Amino acid sequence: MKGLDIVRLEGVEKTYLMDRVKVPALRGINLSIEKGDYVSIMGPSGSGKSTLMNLIGALDRPTKGRVFIEGRDISKLSDNSLARIRREKIGFVFQQFNLIPRLTAIENVELPMWFAGVPKVQRVKRAAELLKLVGLGDRMKHRPTELSGGERQRVCIARALGNDPEIILADEPTGNLDTKSGEGIMRILEELNERGKTIVLVTHEREFGKRANTIIKIRDGRIVG
Ligand SMILES: Nc1ncnc2c1ncn2[C@@H]1O[C@H](COP(=O)(O)OP(=O)(O)OP(=O)(O)O)[C@@H](O)[C@H]1O
Ligand SMILES: [Mg+2]
Questions:
Q1: Ligand 1 near 115 CB (within 6 A)
Q2: What is the pLDDT of residues 120-150, one digit of tens each?
Q3: What is the residue with the minimal CA distance to atom 18 of ligand 1?
Q4: Of 54, 86, 88, 90, which one has the fewest beta carbons inside 10 Å?
């Protein structure tokens, strides 16, 4: 049903321009994701998975076609409007962590809430709760270099949840982790899905990808299954 789609892409193309040479990354994507769905995106390196995630996450605009978030066309919005949608609706978890090295775990988790204007007391309380949720209640004062890879990824998940986003986008969240830490991250994402969050996961790991309710296969910028 159309009304229930939290994300919809219509005829989306994305072409990057490199020294005036066109690099087609997405070549006509039609896609609907229902609220509360758990979707995995799989495909070879360079097939366009991260490009697709960037469009769903309002980090970028399509060259052609339209992207709807909760029914609203975001394809031509200004940078400020896109930033607002990202802040309010979307939580990002990326492979390369992107934590701020100088900040402690709890400060990293507080950051997006600071951007959203959440007052200090409330922010610290929520950040502490989120770190407990991901099993890092005893690591709040650690800086990223003082945490293991799996722990850092869990900080990222806590950070992604600060503003209570409807959609969680995870681009290879387990890519840098051993199997056990990877499994821990998958469990957290799946628990969030059970609580009603929409999850979109990019993964190279078949075993993880197969656990989603909807599996999207992408190749050369096209959905192939
Ligand atoms: N900023 C950019 N400028 C130019 N070309 C880009 C840019 N980002 C990606 N590309 C190109 O677009 C294509 C799709 O890239 P994308 O990062 O979406 O692939 P991917 O499926 O995420 O790959 P991987 O599994 O390796 O992460 C690739 O050919 C890539 O070289
Ligand atoms: Mg990628």
A1: no
A2: 999 999 999 999 988 899 999 999 999 998 8
A3: 48
A4: 88
What confidence tens digit (pLDDT) does each residue in 75-89 have?
989 999 999 999 889
- Is residue 8 within 8 A of residue 31, CB to CB? The reply is yes
Q: Is the Cβ–Cβ distance between 189 and 169 less than 8 Å?
A: no
Domain ranges of the chain: 2-223
Q: Is 137 in the pocket of ligand 1 (CB under 6 A)?
A: no
Neighbour-count burial of 175, counting CB atoms closer than 10 A to its CB (0-12 exposed, 13-18 middle, 19+ buried): middle
The residues, any chain, with a CB within 8 Å of residue 109's CB and separated by 6 or more, are 127, 130, 131, 155, 158, 159, 162
Model-level pTM? Answer: 0.90
Least confident of 2-6, 91-95, 182-186: 2-6
96 Cβ closer than 6 Å to some ligand 1 atom: no
CATH architecture assignment, domain 2-223: 3-Layer(aba) Sandwich (3.40)
The more confidently predicted of residues 175 and 90 is 90
Cα 87 to Cα 82, 106, 162, distances in angstroms: 9, 18, 10
Percentage of the chain modeled with pLDDT above 90:
74
Best substitution site from 13, 29, 42, 51 to test ligand 1's pocket, by max atoms within 8 Å of Cβ?
51
